[in-house]
Structures are given as C-alpha cells and as structure tokens.
Amino acid sequence: MFSGALISSRLKYTLSLTGESVGGGAGVRRCFIVILIRKCGMNPNNYQNVMPLLSRYSFADAPFQILLVFYFSTGPRTSSHSPILIHSSFFNYVSSEKVAFQAIGFSKCRDQGSVFVQVNGEMFPGTFDVLGDNCPTTYAPTCTWNAYRINAEIPLEKIPLSVLDTTREVRLFTPTSSATVSITAVNTAPRPEGLEACVAPLFWYNYWVRVIEFIELYRSQGVSHFYIYVASVSELVDKVLLRYQAEGLVTIVNWPDLPKSESSNPNLGVYRLGLDSCHMDCLLRSKKKFVAQVDFDDYIFVRGKTLLDYVTEHENAHTEIGSFSFVRETLLKQPVHGSLQDISSVSFEEFHKASVCDVCDYNKKVIVVPDKVDILMTHKVKVFRNNKSTEFKTFEIPMDVGAAYHARYALSAAQQKAKYQKVNLFSSRVIASLTEKFTEIAGELANTTAKLDITPTIDLLEKCTQNWMFTPSQCKAPHEYCWSELINVEEWKFANDRVGRQEQYVAL
After folding, report:
1. 93 and 201 together in one domain
2. Is residue 109 situated within a structural domain?
3. For 350, which DSSP code?
4. Which CATH number belongs to the domain containing residue 149 in this structure?
5. Both 322 and 462 in a single domain?
6. How would you class 317 by CB atoms within 10 Å of its CB: exposed for 0-12, middle for 13-18, buried for 19 or more?
7. How many alpha carbons fall within 13 Å on the CB side of residue 77?
8. Which of 4, 105, 259, 338 has most Cβ atoms within 10 angstroms of its Cβ?
9. In the record, what terms sit under GO molecular function (predicted)?
10. 293 and 380 share a domain?
C-alpha cells in the first residue's frame, strides 16, 4: 500500500506541473483538489485514507477550481459502468448537525465506486446505493436497470443552512465523468406535523372515477396533500388531476421514460417504470411529518380515528416509531366501466359496507416518518436513519385496529374461494361527501368532454405483461410491451411530452 508521504509527494509533483504552489503563506494561489485513486495496492473505494491529505490542499475561499484525477497506473481510465441517469436531487434533513444530499435515478448494477459531491466549493465523499432489496432485485431479476441514489452527508459546520437553502445546483464527480444537477426540493429542517400521500407512477391509467374516490377518502382521513407520479394517463384522468392540482391538493410529478437511442433502450430493463426510485423521490419531496406510500387501489383505514390522529398520537408517545405497517386485506370492489353519461348511477357504497378477506393477501403498506427513514421500498422501510439516542423501528398495526384494504375485482383462484365478511369502513357522512364531490367534478367533465366512458384497460395490461415472470429476458416494462395494445384505446397524455427525457435526466 502506498504511504501517505508518497501520495503527498506525488501530489506536490503533479501540482508543480500545473504551475501552482502548494506551500503556505500570503499570495499563494489556492485550489480544490479531489484525488480519485485507481489501483496499485490502494483500495479505490477507500478514499477516507486520502481525505486528510486532501484537506491540506483544500480552501473554502478558493477563487478557482482544479479537478485532478490522480492515477497510480499508466494509461487512460476505462470504466465498466454504464452511467447513472439522475432524475432528481435533494437536500434533506438528517440531524441538527448535518444534512444529506441525495440524487435519485437509475443505473445498471455497479460496485460502490467513487463519487464526490461539490456544494458551494466544498467537496464531500458520497456513495452509490441500490434502492431495491438487491441488484438485480429478487422480485424482478431480469430487469437490468435498477433504482439507485447518490448519497453524501454534509456537516453544517462546513456549509450553514442559510447557504444550503439557497443552493440551486450541485456538481458531481466520478473518476470518469462529471455533471451538474439542479436541486429539486429542499427539506433541511424537521418536517412539521401532518400527513401526505405518495402514489407510484400511473401508466396507461384511465380510471378517473377512482382518482376522485381515492383523494376524497384519504382527505377524510387527514391527508392534506398528494404527490401523484404520472407516466401515461387518459385525457379524463389528466383533467381530474389538473383540477385537484389547481386547488393545491395535488402535485403532479411527471415521470418520463429514460432516454433511448437507436441502439439502446434502457426502458426495456426498468421494472414498472422504476417504483423504487419513485418511492425515494417522493419521500424526499414530502413536506409533512408522515407520508403514506400507497397505490390508487390501496385504502388504509383505522377504526375510531383518522389516520392522521392515530399516527400522530402513537409517534408522539413512542418516538422510536419510524414507520407504521398495515396488513393488506382484499376488498371486493367492482370497477366502473363503459359509458358514464348517467353519473347518478355511480355508487360508492362498497366503501361503506365492504366485503373483505383478511387471508387473501400477504403484502403490507406503510405510513412512514420521512425524517427517520434512510431508504424506503414499496412495502417496507429498507433502512432507517442512524440516531445517536434512538433505534428507529416499524410498528405493526394489529388487524383489529386497522388495515390496508386492496380494492380488487380480478381475483386469483384462491381469492375466489376465500370467505368474505361484511365490514363497516367509511362512514355514511364520508360517503355522502365523496358522492357530492364526484357529482360536481363529473358534471364539469361532462360539459367539456363528449364521452365519459372508461375502457377496461386493466384486462389489456394483464394480457400484455403476463409473461414477464416466465420469460427470462423480459422485464415488466408496460410502456414498451403494451404500446401496440393500448396506444389507440384512449387519448393518452404522456410525461414524455411534458418533460423531455433528455431534459429530465442527467447522465453521470
């Protein structure tokens, strides 16, 4: 292994070739130096050994910057990595002493590698972290492009909050590339009380009635804002979402496909348009203390209280709680298909007197405390944040207290044979309020749209994606594999058309 003295001497020699002085004293031109070490006996990932040397030549008030890629072997550096495609970047609260920078995106499976994050002239070492359970994931092993993040912790003694809160761009460096990313959202203080909801990317989605019932039922449970990720939706769904966004209740997050070329299409290797990246993006975007991670067919419910009241009371009493986990039960809910010119025919009574099965599902849904979560997956927290005084954990909700009801009509053979019981869920008052809101919005749509029809696209989706688990080379990529079956079914609105793929993603 190379000694610190040898590294230092080589560093000085390299600097001398640039004409820069590395000595102290007045009038010395100062520069930032990042050393990215390759091989020759020193672990290229172990940059912590080099950081003390780095600090000897780094000054916060430098008038200019030099990036040195310092190799201990001859020849140009080559990389076996494909780029990481970055969708969004955040500053996020960690503790009273530090803030995290996180960039969310996609990459092929990669080793840890080296990455540095430059903020306001300061350099911080970062990591590449896979967001799923592994890479490739156990639930989609044929998918070659997986969810990743770049993560770097920033001590507030280095950069104060007043600077971070106004920083709009960050520079990223690897041994072979660099890129500038814009900051999407900043949450550098503990989040205030409240409950928000995240909805994973909608694709080929035309069930506009469910959009209304979902938002109104969760509003009755204390949810104040919804982050709804959109890849492709029908014209009617788009109109409903835009209406709620105009009210300030919804943030539409456009979720375009990855950039592709004639020779390469990474979207063929992205599972369901990148669920795990979406979950982390929403976690970091959120502004309230609690966030529900749900789909449009998930209805989390607790008896005797609103969701907001329940999670607030329990987290205040047990500060070690970092997430609430709800067992998912199956709720029989017939879809609304066909013509809806007679809007009075639509009933939401199935949410009042519900038929449910408590042994038909095995998954769970979660409400999390973003300030306590490091990595979030679809059905659970993968990693909680480290805390000096408290070990954060998941609180399992007893089924007699609450559950996540999964609205289904296409049942498996086992689900069809199971016993269903009648359960009182949402009150008559809530159902009446939902019906009133639906009538109002549907009436507005009828005045501007020739047809309020809903085509049963779920059946077409099931057909075109049913082989993904059994075809070794096929990933569940609904835009790619269902295009021909669905493109002419509705007037679709695509995130690709609103946010260009090339403009949205930054390659590093």
Report:
1. no
2. yes
3. G
4. 2.60.40
5. yes
6. exposed
7. 15
8. 105
9. glycosyltransferase activity
10. yes
With respect to residue 341, please indicate whether it lies within any of the assigned structural domains.
yes
Residues 136, 143: Cα–Cα separation, whole Å: 7
**Triad 363, 364, 367: Cα angle to 5°:** 160
Residue 317: CB partners within 8 Å, gap ≥ 6? none
Burial code (b: 16+ CB inside 10 Å, e: under 16) for 170-190 equals bbbbbbbeebebebbebbbee
**Whether residues 243 and 155 fall in one domain:** no
Q: Residues 132, 233: one domain?
A: no
Alpha carbon 57 to chain centroid distance? 37
CB burial of residue 64 (10 Å; 0-12, 13-18, 19+): exposed
Final residue of a structural domain among 151, 168, 187: 187
Task: Decide if 11 is inside a domain.
Answer: no
Within 10 angstroms of residue 344's Cβ, the number of other Cβ atoms is: 8
Domain limit, last residue, from 187, 205, 239: 187
DSSP string over 105-122: EEEES-----EEEEETTE
335 and 212: one domain? yes
Q: Outline where 175-321 has alpha helix (H).
A: 208-219, 235-246, 275-285, 307-317
Q: How many CA atoms lie within 13 A of 157 on its CB side?
A: 1
Domain check: are 133 and 182 in the same one?
Answer: yes
Helices (H), 31-181: 51-56, 161-164
CA distance 182 to 46: 28
| Residue 228 covered by a domain | yes
**Containing structural domain, residue 155:** 85-187
Place of tokens 């007893």: 398
Give the residue from 286, 260, 367 showing the smallest Cα distance to 323.
367
Which residues are 254's β-sheet partners? 230
Q: Which amino acid appears at position 405 of this protein?
A: Y
Which one-letter DSSP state was computed for residue 394? E
Strand, helix or coil at 293? strand
Q: How far apart are CA 486 and CA 267, in angstroms?
A: 17
Token pair of 365 as six digits: 């849904």
DSSP state of 141: T
User: E strands within 319-377?
Assistant: 321-332, 353-357, 364-368, 373-376
